[in-house]
Amino acid sequence: MLNSPQRETRNRILVLNPKGGSGKSTLVTNLAACYAQRDSTPVVMDYDPQGSTTAWLERRPADLPRIHGIVAYKKSMQATRSWQLRVPEDTLNLIVDSPAGITHDDLRELTRDACSILVPVLPSAMDIHAASRCIADLLLVAKVDRNERKLAVVANRTRKHTKSYANLMRFLDSLGIPIIAVLRDTQNFVHSAEQGVGIHEMPESRVQPDRQQLDNIVRWLDGWEERRRRAIELRKIAQDSAQPDSVLHKPQFGSA
Ligand SMILES: Nc1ncnc2c1ncn2[C@@H]1O[C@H](COP(=O)(O)OP(=O)(O)O)[C@@H](O)[C@H]1O
Ligand SMILES: [Mg+2]
Q: Nearest C-alpha to atom 13 of ligand 1 is from which residue?
């Protein structure tokens, strides 16, 4: 059976950074391969007209676990748009790849139903600047509530001990947004993209450190329901304490 993608029984993961080349499609395809190896068929929804994720999926060897692809960048008529974007009902993980240079309206639209938002960031000064704008837009334009802890950063193509790497870490720390993984700059990602596979589908001896970092991302993503539950609790506590006339503070009948 097919269902609307808006249902929150699945983790809808948005990978976003309006700067091209930051590693969005790399992250989307590798996460999809992790989920495909681990549990039920994941879905990748490709909003980028460059179609890198869709092309990767077309290259994917037929004997590997299936990943369901949705080509969202080809706009159909309104009447058939929801049919085009339909997601199989039993999908546990839906990963959305986004294009470079999106408008504020697109940003609002893409983030509206997201349960988790990952921003891959490269360590150059220009990329750090672009990422800070992207994160500010997420908070101020798309009104992503930091208390909901939906938002995390993945530092990508890092080379440790460089100045830009240290700058990146300082920048992310200052925002109080978690850096859930640090992916190194390695040809493993280039080869996995070429072959239509994920890092988890390559010989372990070659990719072990990269796998570990991807596992950190998946672990954080798997906590999405707990994060949401906690955010609802916190909102309720904040609302209750903001009500001065709560029944507890009213004088009891008959008291002096
Ligand atoms: N950690 C990495 N190490 C080496 N190459 C990488 C890494 N991450 C991405 N790349 C390469 O950088 C290029 C841009 O990455 P991509 O995921 O397509 O970015 P985006 O989708 O944000 O435009 C691709 O050729 C990809 O293989
Ligand atoms: Mg891309």
A: 21
